[in-house]
Design a protein that fits this description.
Mean pLDDT: 86
Number of strands: 29
Oligomer: single chain
Low-confidence stretches: 543-550, 1042-1092
Distance between the termini: 86 Å
Strand order of the largest sheet: 15-16-14-17-22-11-23
Structural class: alpha/beta
Number of helices: 50
């Protein structure tokens, strides 16, 4: 029997057949748990089975949000096709379905990035891109961005470009340009999510340019400020009208008539202001009208109705707050002053925009030069192919786009609410107005931090029509996941708080969740029932509410209390053997895997929670992505790698010795420290021998082995040896949350592998790479460490839970404040609102808010809170059977007796009439708890504890949709929770021994010990430097010093630049094209497998020069010799194909090549090591400190009793001068090393360029 679809699902599957049209574009708005993926798969199968209008799976394009979703979609389609074949006897249909099944692997079911890659691969010849280009990982691209930006800033300072000194004064501090760099990168990243980044950036400048010539009140920002101000005045007027009615009542609070009169006078003054400066004068005089207090004696109060008194006071207090806020309104600043501010701002914002555009160009050039791409490039290169040149501002399809329009009969986009502007433009260009199928849920649009733009969905949601519209909307509102009460409670809340003005969408009956799951004959032990809000009142043990309203709701002590409550509740439910319902309707006993704890963020909480739960006997796991580099197991590994590179560093050495790897306790570590002068490493051999400490002797042996490994092999070999010899993976796996720790350790190995695959080498450089990752806040993506089959409680972020479901959900940390840090920035960015820049007083280096900044801040804050509502919606709809929400509060009343912020919220919300809460109340929320409380306070039964807590006596309005949902609110004494020590009591004998000891302060220490405690290591700078340095690192350091001194130009500038404004005039001969690695189709675009980089190609050419016999060659004989190297195993076939025969032949035919062949003594790949004075590299190194330099000289040959030194280069350059500029320092070092190594002088140094086919002499 087939699936029984709802009428709406059926329409989404068969449309346009249920309409009068031949083709339609559909927007399927699928609520949480509505079975959207099943509908999408069924629509595809239905289209493929249609014999009247035959469609091949290759004529469909299905775009998913993740690769995992694409794989799941493909698997589902394959399974559905196989089932459809089995269920029909029609031979023609069976053959058709079998053919579609065979074609499925080549179908376009993928992420948009994968589709873009396919488009570029198919039409690469139309693009000017590096043919060896590969896709770099995120961390690698971040490092490249830092390098490019550092070069660009250096050039800007040297040449005085982009108002750089004003920018630095504004955004940077005295230590670094980190502030300015962050602003450039945030602006760049935002712009790259749009179809025309540079165009958008320049357009964002226009309002600032215009503001210098028109009155501030006529600017976009001025009009917004005026309208917003008028809206507040209208709100005050509405409240005063109600206050007037209350005063007219015989039992109204007539004592407060004067308060009403004064507020009415203030309203009249504000309403009469017609100009900017008039409004400013009115705002300055507000204070006169808001001095009165709402005071009333108990005897006086007996004459009035307490409900009317409470309502009047609430309305009057809200007016007072609004009027008070007007005293600091922007209107109090004269228009002339504002215009001066705009003129001062323009050079700053112009410089920042132009600098960002320059970075875009320089970064693009560097990626082209290095043969590397990022995901953003995939989208923009694909877009470049699809847009007709010259139509970038209003994109029109190119010939390529038209070909793709003919190829695909329908474009299907899953999770459409998570797309951005670039992706939307790509989809539009390859489709028609009547063959798109979008599916998603704008109420689950929670990825703005990934530059997703939910307004794209909203625009269609609000404009698409009914059954016979070309652009048609179908709503799938029936939820098959959650129990009816969870859905009605969710509806009850969002009917009140999700409004168009406050959250970009009106939550009406059309958006509400309709129960599709039936729970019949539930056993008495069924876990389901009320939706519960469980609050811990911690006001007894912590600061009073009046003192703590401004905290972040995230203090450790109270987090522990909440965690204790959750643990007890989980143990209670599990111990009672409660039942949960299976998807097939049957019931079973609850297991640990049925529980999930969700939080907005797990940072600093998740690992602690897992540890506490394990101690309580609850198996749990958390995949905590935050704080990777702070994880104990990673910090220990990095400390170990650091001392392998340089063992003279005492701090990381002490950390390793004190860890489980060696196991010295504090006393043993102290004894080692006191055993003599010098570093711990220098003292260790003697101390270990004297004490015969097997642990230290073993560790010294391992260290010597690891240090040798680090010099001779890669970081990956070193790490793996550490893992195997120390059983490190199993060691961390046995710690609390071991599954995640194990994954962390393996992830570091994978990152090292990726680092070396990118052409990088060396432990010191790897440690710097990791340091850069940490500084740039790069995440290390982890594999999923737990499967659905594992019987453990899961802790995860709400974002991570999207698309998942759990029988019992605890939504934790409801009191934690929304993260508004981004709204404090000097620069705010929004697609539609543009750029909001603060003003700046350069003399005192203080910034101040401006009209543009306020405008963008308001837009962004509204968008942020709208998204937080959607995140809450996602969280509430994860539970199948039971939903708990937990948090702590610090009282509903202040110590003075008045209401706290939460108390005021309950009072203001409870008195509202009508379904939707007013915008000003909704937007007051700074936590999820605020929204839950304002919504639940209006529930007849569930809200009673909240109303009782504030002794509410005002009017109530309970006639709301879904008012019959069962909500339970409980407020507990928080002081009863928080003891998370579930371990056995500590042995009393140990404690007694400690008690018997004398206090340290009562013992007089010998002078030698005092001296040693106060010891300062004399070579502190040396501990921060590697003892060994490579030639390339030394070269980089010399360049930095010369750059600082201003004696040389920027050496890190991209050598090869790409002129994108005009077509390339260069021509390449057919022979060169055939034999060069650069003449072939881009390998990264041939498949998704890794390919050799330009750096690795250079390595291959060096190896060829190392192994080729030095003899006279013809072109044919050289080719034969290279082929022979494959037979010998020197090269693989793939590597052999990447070697340029012509380039090698030209070298051997050159004058330098002939001299080399005829030489009597030749050294190839000559390794050298030498000590030299550290001060030559680092000015701060103490006198007498030497550095150990290692390197390899490509070739040296003897001529007339002197050396000729040759170094081979494959850099993409325009001239020999560029190579000399780049490698002069390196050649000088090689020359010095060769002379010191052999005692024979060097008469000439050459760089041979395989690109230029030329030998360049280096003086």
């Amino acid at each position: 029997m087939g699936v029984k679809w709802t009428p709406e699902q059926e329409s989404a599957i068969i449309a346009p057949k249920d309409s009068s049209l031949d083709n339609q574009t559909l927007l399927v708005a699928a609520a949480a748990g509505a079975g959207k993926t099943a509908v999408l798969v069924e629509r595809i199968i239905t289209r493929l089975k249609d014999m009247d209008n035959p469609l091949s799976v290759q004529e469909l394009m299905v775009v998913t949000f993740t690769k995992a979703a694409a794989q799941e979609m493909s698997a589902r389609i394959g399974l559905a096709l196989a089932k459809a074949m089995e269920s029909t006897d029609d031979v023609a249909m069976q053959e058709r379905l079998e053919r579609q099944l065979n074609l499925l692997p080549s179908a376009h079911i993928s992420t948009l990035h994968s589709f873009c890659q396919w488009v570029i691969r198919s039409y690469f010849y139309k693009l000017d891109i590096n043919p060896t280009a590969r896709i770099g990982n995120e961390a690698e691209m971040t490092l490249l961005q830092q390098e490019v930006l550092a070069d660009l800033l250096t050039k800007s300072y040297e040449e005085g470009l982009y108002n750089i000194y004003e920018l630095a004064d504004f955004f940077s501090d005295d230590k670094s340009d980190a502030g300015l760099t962050a602003k450039i990168m945030s602006l760049y990243n935002y712009a790259m999510s749009l179809a025309n980044p540079d165009g958008w950036l320049r357009k964002a400048l226009e309002p600032y340019k215009e503001a210098m010539t028109i009155k501030p009140s006529d600017t976009l920002w001025g009009q917004y400020m005026w309208d917003k101000h008028i809206a507040v005045i209208d709100r005050i007027r509405e409240r005063l009208e109600r206050m007037e009615q209350i005063l007219l009542d015989p039992v109204g609070p007539h004592k407060w008539q004067k308060i009403y009169d004064n507020q009415l006078a203030a309203l009249g003054m504000l309403s009469g202001a017609q100009s900017w400066d008039d409004m400013g004068d009115a705002c300055k005089h507000i204070d006169t009208f808001i001095k009165d207090q709402f005071r009333m004696g108990s005897k006086e109060a007996q004459a009035f109705d307490p409900i009317l008194v409470a309502e009047f006071k609430s309305l009057g207090s809200q007016n007072k707050e609004d009027l008070k806020g007007m005293q600091a309104a922007v209107f109090t600043v004269p228009e002339s002053t504002l215009q001066e501010q705009f003129k001062a701002q323009y050079p700053i914002i112009e410089g920042l925009v132009e600098l960002t555009i320059a970075f875009h160009q320089a970064y693009r050039d560097m990626k082209q030069e290095q043969g590397i791409m990022d995901f953003s490039d995939l989208e923009h290169l694909c877009l470049a192919l699809l847009v007709e040149p010259g139509t970038e501002d209003d994109p029109q399809p190119s010939e390529v786009a038209k070909e793709l329009q003919d190829t695909f009969k329908e474009i299907m986009v899953d999770e459409y609410q998570d797309t951005n502007g670039v992706q939307e433009t790509i989809i539009n260009l390859i489709s028609r107005i009547d063959n798109r199928f979008y599916v998603g849920d704008v109420k689950q649009a929670i990825y703005s931090f990934r530059m997703a733009d939910s307004s794209l969905f909203m625009e269609k949601y609000n404009t698409y029509g009914g059954t016979d519209a070309v652009e048609r909307r179908i709503d799938l509102a029936k939820n098959f996941r959650s129990h009816e009460n969870i859905l009605t409670a969710t509806n009850f809340l969002f009917y009140q708080i999700m409004t168009e003005e406050a959250a970009e969408l009106n939550y009406t009956e059309a958006e509400s969740l309709i129960p599709g799951r039936i729970v019949e004959d539930a056993p008495e032990a069924w876990v389901g029932g009320d939706v519960e809000l469980q609050l811990l009142d911690v006001s007894k043990d912590t600061l009073s509410a009046s003192e703590s309203d401004e905290d972040e709701g995230d203090d450790p002590e109270n987090n522990e209390r909440e965690l204790d409550f959750i643990i007890q509740k989980i143990k209670e439910i599990h111990g009672a053997k409660k039942k949960v319902q299976n998807p097939d309707g049957t019931f079973r006993q609850i297991e640990w895997r049925d529980f999930a704890i969700l939080r907005r963020s797990l940072a600093g909480w998740g690992t602690r929670a897992v540890e506490a739960m394990r101690q309580a006997g609850i198996p749990a796991v958390v995949n905590e992505r935050d704080g990777y580099f702070e994880a104990q197991e990673i910090q220990l590994l990095l400390a170990l790698l650091s001392i392998i590179d340089n063992p003279e560093q005492d701090l990381p050495m002490a950390a390793v010795l004190h860890s489980g790897l060696v196991g010295l306790d504090a006393n043993e570590l102290g004894a080692l420290r006191l055993s003599g002068e010098g570093s711990l490493w220098s003292l260790m051999p003697t101390y270990a021998e004297e004490t015969q400490d097997e642990r230290l002797l073993s560790f010294i042996g391992y260290m010597e082995r690891w240090r040798t490994l680090s010099r001779r092999h890669g970081v990956t070999d070193l790490l793996w040896d550490i893992y195997e010899s120390q059983d490190y993976v199993n060691y961390v796996g046995a710690m609390p949350n071991g599954l995640v720790r194990r994954a962390n350790v393996l992830a570091l190995y994978d990152r090292a592998k990726g680092y070396e695959a990118s052409g990088f080498r060396g432990l010191f450089r790897f440690l710097r790479f990791v340091e850069s990752l940490r500084d740039s806040n790069q995440d290390m993506p982890l594999a999923n460490v737990v499967s659905e089959a594992d019987n453990v409680v899961r802790l995860m972020t709400i974002h991570k839970s999207k698309g998942l479901e759990f029988p019992v959900v605890f939504l934790s940390g409801m009191q934690k404040k929304f993260n508004m840090m981004d709204l404090r920035s000097e620069l705010l960015i929004d697609k539609n609102a543009g750029l909001g820049l603060k003003g700046y007083f350069p003399d005192i280096r203080v910034s101040f808010p401006t009209m543009p900044w306020f405008y963008v801040k308001d837009v962004k804050e509204a968008a942020l809170k709208a998204e937080e509502q959607r995140i809450l919606y996602v969280a509430l709809t994860r539970a199948r059977d039971k939903l708990f929400m937990t948090g702590f509060v610090k009282g509903f009343k202040k110590s003075s007796g008045g209401l706290s912020t939460l108390g005021e919220l309950i009072k203001n919300a409870a008195s509202v009439e009508g379904q939707q809460l007013p915008t000003d109340i909704i937007t007051q929320a700074n936590t999820y708890l605020d929204w839950l409380i304002m919504g639940f306070a209006r529930h007849l039964d569930g809200g009673n504890p909240l109303r009782v807590a504030i002794e509410y006596e005002g009017p109530t309005y309970f006639d709301l949709p879904d008012k019959k949902c069962r909500i339970k609110v409980e407020i507990h004494d928080g002081s009863l929770y928080g003891d998370l020590d579930y371990k056995a009591d500590i042995d009393e004998t140990t404690i007694n021994k400690v008690r018997a000891l004398k206090a340290v302060n009562s013992v007089e220490l010998p002078q030698e010990i005092v001296d040693r405690f106060n010891y300062t290591y004399p070579y502190s700078d040396a501990t921060r430097r590697t003892a060994k340095i490579s030639v390339s690192e030394l070269k980089r350091r010399f360049q930095e010093r010369e750059l600082e001194a201003g004696t040389i130009d920027s050496l890190n500038e991209p050598i090869a630049t790409v002129n994108t404004g005009a077509k390339r005039a260069d021509t390449v001969s057919a022979d060169d094209l055939a034999n060069s690695v650069f003449g072939r189709k881009p390998q990264a675009l041939q498949s998704e497998e890794d390919v050799l980089t330009g750096a690795q190609w250079g390595t291959l050419m060096h190896e060829a020069m190392q192994w080729l016999p030095l003899a006279k060659y013809t072109q044919a004989s050289l080719t034969k010799e290279l082929d022979a190297l494959v037979t010998k195993g020197t090269f693989t076939e793939e590597e052999r194909n990447l070697l340029s025969d012509i380039s090698l032949y030209k070298f051997f035919s050159s004058n330098l090549g002939k001299r080399l062949i005829n030489a009597k003594r030749i050294e190839r790949e000559l390794p050298f090591s030498m000590l030299f004075e550290g001060k030559r590299v680092y000015d701060t190194v103490e006198d007498g400190e030497n550095l150990f330099l290692q390197g390899i000289i490509d070739t040296a040959f003897e001529e007339d009793g002197e050396w000729v030194l040759v170094d081979y280069k494959t850099d993409r350059v325009k001239s020999g001068e560029d190579l000399i500029k780049r490698y002069k320092i390196q050649m000088d070092l090689y020359k010095e090393a060769l002379q010191r190594l052999t005692g024979m002088p060097v008469k000439a140094c050459y760089i041979y360029s395989f690109r230029l086919h030329d030998a360049i002499i280096v003086d």
